[in-house]
Task: inverse folding
């Protein structure tokens, strides 16, 4: 069985550069091989650059982005703790679900889908809940294409003595993100978005304050797989006697090392700007074709654009025709936006004006024919 | 960074055939692409063959084998439940750790490392604990190279009204395993052992009784990522409207489809026999060189052989020389057997008398030189 080559303009995965696929297929080595331990150090170092952090505890979890979310929350929260979760789309809602399962009290700050987290509302909530110990929010909402002001949110959390957890699944290396400067305590992401790597990994970083919180826990983390204390000693001390925890997905990490090398080679600033320019070109093309972005200009997330489905267009029919006739994947709406918006990803490899043209040209032709 | 080609004779990963690496590196497609959904169906069907089961809920978890263990236990157990865990090595111990974190009462049946689970002891324990609802055991202990009698253990569990959970990480496709015939309720494995696939995935299967137990839960599963009820509807009804849960590791599943195709092509019976013949040849070679297998002949696990480190041999030195001079990975001892035994894997691709010779020849040369 060989899959058809697709052009991936949905919410991720995006297309994966040949050098990353080639790294992926290198002969497997052991997860305790000294060469693999070196590779993990290299990945950690490159990831610190991508996150703009000096956190020693910066590494790649051996499962998709959702495990980043779960790992962040189950390690920082104990039963009875209070967390404030900002919800403006599907992924904030998922954070609530996970935190509830820990036995934490969840206070929500809810904003309309398609709008960012409102810092004033968060501030009021922080004042009303001095018992809160964590603020969690989504930097880049993949369900709505909205970017929230991570810098301001993290600063508010800190002012009120809370740790800040940021979902950076669709922001890492695609839009400005400065973990240390902004004071984010835990940030996690996915491999298959702006890093343009294969899906299945979740890069994560923990601040010293987050590590301290984990050390002071009085209950064991409910998940053995997600228990960061079982991995911490390695990353903190830099010891080469890495304790065996689980068998790392060696080949996927070969791919991640290459994906992060490409980020370093390009530089973050240029990569952020490339995503911005590609998105600007996309907006222009959409607007001149009479297609309306769903999110107000100032809150749009460059790597992922939501566009309203015109009243006379057939949602599934258009996406089906793009896929079957053109081998182009366009994202459908998720949750409240199902049937109402398309999600157009211009991430990683695909974040160029030329790729935006390729997608819009095909979309317009298919809509005209349909 | 390009890793050195290694010959992998440790406890896994093992060497990955070229056709699997090539499948792995196929261009990424979306996790909701109809072609990917077809691939998941195909993987599920092939996996049912490998497990010898008709269970509809048979699929591949998006993380390494440890997540198979955690998923099995956190879905079957609720706080206050009683589980009997058979411990005869590291992985039984890990089951205990995970079940304790669920808030279950853990009763253990402990047997010496290097010996199998004792069915009589299990039976006494089952009689003494009629409140137990689950029996968990390791079919193939990767830390000791012991195979336990899964058929008898599962039958005892059933007689006493318990579900049987089997860790098949180092048995799936490498030694006889018949999930339905033996009455195993949950079996999980890892991709990187006898399947000879890349590390990072955990194939799992749930019986109807296990599904029923999960449906009757009164507490949500503590882990959102591991909550099988969020995935169950798809696999049970065969509906094509797969709900989005997380982004599947698409490329790794390409590889898994190919790995399972190779199993089907060879047939399970021939593959089990191949592992057996390779191991028989290995025992012969080891014994004629004066090296002593650690496990009694009748309890040995063909894919993984523990051999006592001779008193005059240097454990780390020998393994280091093999790795650095010959690019051969030999497994060190784990837990109680660290420094006392080497672990020799002849799994998947490497389960042939020729590969056994390759390893033993190199080992003897290095030991002689050292």
Result:
């Amino acid at each position: 069985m060989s899959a058809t080559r697709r052009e991936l303009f949905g919410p991720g995965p995006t297309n994966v550069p040949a050098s990353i696929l080639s790294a992926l297929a290198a002969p497997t080595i052991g997860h305790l091989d000294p060469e693999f331990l070196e590779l993990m150090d290299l990945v950690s170092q490159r990831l610190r650059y991508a996150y703009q952090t000096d956190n020693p505890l910066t590494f790649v979890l051996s499962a998709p982005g959702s495990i980043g979310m779960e790992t962040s929350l189950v390690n920082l929260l104990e039963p009875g703790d209070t967390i404030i979760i900002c919800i403006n789309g599907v992924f904030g809602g998922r954070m609530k679900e996970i935190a509830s399962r820990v036995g934490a009290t969840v206070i929500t700050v809810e904003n309309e889908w398609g709008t960012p987290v409102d810092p004033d509302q968060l501030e009021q909530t922080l004042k009303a809940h001095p018992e809160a110990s964590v603020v969690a929010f989504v930097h880049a909402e993949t369900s709505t294409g909205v970017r929230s002001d991570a810098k301001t949110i993290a600063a508010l959390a800190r002012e009120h003595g809370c740790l800040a957890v940021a979902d950076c699944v669709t922001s890492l290396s695609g839009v400005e993100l400065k973990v240390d400067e902004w004071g984010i305590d835990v940030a996690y992401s996915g491999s298959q978005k702006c890093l343009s790597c294969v899906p299945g990994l979740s890069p994560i970083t923990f601040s010293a304050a987050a590590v301290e919180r984990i050390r002071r826990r009085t209950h064991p983390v409910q998940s053995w797989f997600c228990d960061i204390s079982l991995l911490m000693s390695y990353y903190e001390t830099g010891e080469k006697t890495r304790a065996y925890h689980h068998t790392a997905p060696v080949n996927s990490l070969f791919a991640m090392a290459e994906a992060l090398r490409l980020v370093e080679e390009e530089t973050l600033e240029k990569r952020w700007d490339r995503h911005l320019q590609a998105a600007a070109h996309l907006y222009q093309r959409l607007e001149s074709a009479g297609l309306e972005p769903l999110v107000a200009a100032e809150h749009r997330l460059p790597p992922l654009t939501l566009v309203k489905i015109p009243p006379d267009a057939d949602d599934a029919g258009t996406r089906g025709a793009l896929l079957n006739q053109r081998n182009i994947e366009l994202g459908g709406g998720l949750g409240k936006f199902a049937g109402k918006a398309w999600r157009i990803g211009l991430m990683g490899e695909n974040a160029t004006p030329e790729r935006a043209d390729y997608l819009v040209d095909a979309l317009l032709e298919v809509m005209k024919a349909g």
In short: The longest helix of chain B spans residues 268-288. Residues 221 and 227 of chain B are 6 Å apart (CA to CA).
